[in-house]
Structure formats: structure tokens, C-alpha cells
Amino acid sequence: MSELIVLTCASGKQCSHLVPLLYDESMYKLRLVVNSTASSERLQKQYPKAEVVQANLDFPQDCARILEGATVIYYIGPPFTWKETYYGINVVDAAVSESKKPGSKFAHFVFSSVLHPELTKLLNHDRKRYVEEHLTESMLPYTILQPSHFTDNAIGQLVAQKDVDHPVFKAPHSAQTAFSFTSLHDYAEASAKVIQERSKHFYATYQLVSTLPMKYTEYIKSIGEAMGKDVEIQEVPYEQSVGNFCERMFGSRDDVPQTLRDGPERLVLYYNHRGLYSNPNILEWLIGRTGSSPADVAKRYLQR
Ligand SMILES: NC(=O)c1ccc[n+]([C@@H]2O[C@H](COP(=O)([O-])OP(=O)(O)OC[C@H]3O[C@@H](n4cnc5c(N)ncnc54)[C@H](OP(=O)(O)O)[C@@H]3O)[C@@H](O)[C@H]2O)c1
């Protein structure tokens, strides 16, 4: 009988790369968890063999429902909500209850966290730190995956300008800041491996990045080279950049509660001076090849 793999934030960026890697495996049945009706309808059309479930991770009863009969949960937390820690704790608690049911098939909790959850100045990192702690202390068989800033974040904006004479990148923070980038494609491959190989990865925490630290200027240059273009970088002023984030994440620039605005405000401030550093060795060991450069990722987008 096939095993039930539950994936949260199934309509999001990470799952758009991960779900296709698991969907055709006959040993798995997928339960794709979303919040909105629009995402539910879209995924039902895209993945007719999967079960698509609407849930609000704020509600413990919804978390219990998504875990019913599950063998594995691949847990991604919704971004930039002050409730992120509560959501994660709700899901861990639901997994513990599921694992204690008579005849339970529950076997693995995979948490897609973030690189350096110990960075308390970044709320979107700090909020995951408590989820990691709760999961570690739950005594469930777990694996924690820590991706960095996704390589793909700026690529859509740039590839859309492939036929423009002078493409421009609007940098949301200082372009001198360096990051290790994680390609969504590489990260999905590593995540699928962890799900498939299961017990080999129990109780491990992996930093998963595709590149050594590189300045944003170098990152944009590498994408520009794949497009055959010189890209001009324009840094967006702080207040405007926070407004852009809020508009993208919450649908409004100004009419956003401070509890939500806190996340983007801290992020832009932090990234103006400090980036996220790691080393691609662990990712390369997992996927058995070199991590993708920004140019590799851009070429994939251009070929689509
Ligand atoms: N962007 C980066 O560079 C980066 C890097 C490392 C880690 N991360 C982390 O990645 C996570 C987000 O993953 P993603 O980028 O794949 O997602 P995403 O594209 O931002 O999509 C957000 C997802 O959250 C779901 N959602 C929102 N509110 C919900 C709720 N109350 N209950 C259940 N689901 C809810 C949405 O469902 P609907 O579509 O139905 O609304 C959607 O699937 C965040 O924790 C973020 O910190 C991001």
C-alpha cells in the first residue's frame, strides 16, 4: 500500500519544485495542504492524483486533520506572519498525537526551516528557531533542512526583461551584501532525497545552499551573463523597499498592521549590512553534483 506524504504550503515556491519530483512515484500518495480556495482549485487541476486539502495552520484541529494517516510530513511554514511559531508548534503537536495513535504509520517529520534560525534580528529566522526546538524535543524522528535566500527570487524580474535593451534590477537592499544562495531546483532534489531515504537522515540538521557567499552585484551579473545582457542595478530606498515587500506579501503598501510589517522592516535593515553565509558541501553530498550557480538557474528559466 502507498504511503501518505503530507506537504504544507503546497501552492508555494518550494513545493512547485518538490511536488513534481514525488508525484509520479507509485509508492507515495500526496496530500497537498493549502489555505485558499483559489490555490486548492489550481492544485486539484494540476495534480489530479493528489489529495488537496484546505487548512489553516492556526487551528490545531486542522493540523490534526492534515496529519491523519500520514507517514511523512514535509512542513513549510507560511512566510512573514507573527504567528509562524504557533503554526509550527501546532503541526509538531499534531504529528506527536498522530504518532501515538494505535497502528500509526507516522515515521518522519521533515521541517523546511531556514539557514541560521539563531539570527534573532531576523524575525522570519527567529520564529523558526522555536519550531526547531519544539521538534527536536518532540522525540519524533525528524530532519531539519535549512535553505538560504532563494536564487530564484530575483530571476523572474530579470528574465521578464530578456528582450529589453537595458534591463534594470531594483535591489531591495544594498547590492554590496553577500549571500550564499539556494536554488529551489537543488533544494527540491535534496528534499526529495531526504523523504525517499528517510531513516538515513533521522535527527540531522542540514544547511542546504548552492553557492558560497557572493555579493548581490556578482549574483545579478551572473544572471545577466546568462541573458547576454548588462544589468543596471538601482538600489531602492529603505521605506520604499519595505512598502514593496508589504505589497507583495500582504497586498498593501501602507494599510498593514505593524505586527506584519515588523518582518520585512527588520529583513531589509539587516540585509543592508549583513547577508547569510554557508557552504554548499552538504547539499552537494546529498544531490551528488555541484550546486547550481545563478547563471545555471537563469538558463533553466530562459529555456521554459
Ligand atoms: N524566499 C526565500 O528566499 C526563503 C528562503 C528560505 C526560507 N524561506 C521560507 O519559506 C517559507 C515559505 O515557503 P514558500 O516560499 O514555498 O511559500 P510561498 O510561495 O510564500 O507561499 C505561501 C504559502 O503559505 C500558505 N499559507 C498562508 N497562510 C496559511 C495558513 N494560515 N495556513 C496554511 N497555509 C497557509 C499559502 O497557501 P495559499 O496559496 O492557499 O494562500 C501558500 O501555500 C517561509 O517560512 C519562508 O520564511 C524563504
UniProtKB/TrEMBL annotation:
<dbReference type="Pfam" id="PF05368">
    <property type="entry name" value="NmrA"/>
</dbReference>
<dbReference type="InterPro" id="IPR008030">
    <property type="entry name" value="NmrA-like"/>
</dbReference>
<comment type="similarity">
    <text>Belongs to the NmrA-type oxidoreductase family.</text>
</comment>
<protein>
    <recommendedName>
        <fullName>NmrA-like domain-containing protein</fullName>
    </recommendedName>
</protein>
<dbReference type="InterPro" id="IPR036291">
    <property type="entry name" value="NAD(P)-bd_dom_sf"/>
</dbReference>
<dbReference type="InterPro" id="IPR051164">
    <property type="entry name" value="NmrA-like_oxidored"/>
</dbReference>
<keyword id="KW-0521">NADP</keyword>
<feature type="domain" description="NmrA-like">
    <location>
        <begin position="2"/>
        <end position="244"/>
    </location>
</feature>
